[in-house]
DNA sequence: GGGTTAACCTGCGGGC
DNA sequence: TGCCCGCAGGTTAACC
């Protein structure tokens, strides 16, 4: 389940594996993979073929590859998406959705890019840039704004421009539960179910704590833990529970060995030994320690 | 306009 | 063995 650390791991792989290449062939194997490209698969292909990829960028869980046309290929991995850089003769994956071939004269490794997605919650689209063109600086890095389809989400907490004070005040203005607020990508992007549970365990804070009762120092501490857990997860190459999340080389992350709450139902809390509980939350799960993270009297879901 | 819910989708594991 | 159901969950449209 890719969240920010997993997407960042993929982005780094794309930076090494596809930036600077010129796309010569695009094969869309499943129309749903480009459903957010409203003009359809043929238009998607036409806008990418012949274009040079200038960079690999990320905000929250969105990835994009700026092109020399001024547009960008925007990707979201959804629940099960993978972007793999593999030899062209490698057999097609069972859920291969889109394949990109590169001009050999621009492609030292001789590999191709594949978008593989079992559950098809993810997808790709070609999107114009807003807030500046997808230019290129002297060192070859892409510069400029963000794709229009990414502009609606908040900065992620690893972005140097992230405004901590604005987050703290925005969080305390909400009238909802703290975990629901953490998952709201328009308040803070990149946080998903796994890292929300981990950060809340570290504070510690119950997931249904009303945001408008959070003291500023607590809100600030929560943000610090979100940053810490994401930074540690990136260093470990992301979290993986099964083969659904992998880097561009197909390698699984190791951070699941470091999780304290998520997926640890009935296992002892690392702080106090009380068995971790699982609660139903928004048609999914929330894991927490009943003793360290007691349910507030006034809970919000 | 902010908060909340359901739908989208496939594979897998458990129960019968 | 095979069928059915629940579960995994990020995003967004639709509803309140």
Detail the poorly predicted runs. Answer: 135-142
Helix content: 10-25%
**DSSP summary: helix tally:** 6
SSE pattern: HEHEEEEEEEEHHHHEE
SS-derived structural category: alpha+beta
Strand tally: 11
Across the major sheet, the strand order is 2-3-4-8-9
Number of domains: 2
* CATH topology (fold) name of the largest domain: N-terminal domain of MutM-like DNA repair proteins
Largest sheet: 5 strands, antiparallel
How much is the radius of gyration in Å? Answer: 20 Å
The dominant shape is: elongated
Beta-strand residue fraction: 15-25%
Averaged pLDDT: 89
Broad CATH class of the largest domain:
Alpha Beta
In CATH terms, what is the architecture of the largest domain? Alpha-Beta Barrel
Spell out the CATH superfamily of the largest domain: MutM-like, N-terminal
Distance between the termini: 22 Å
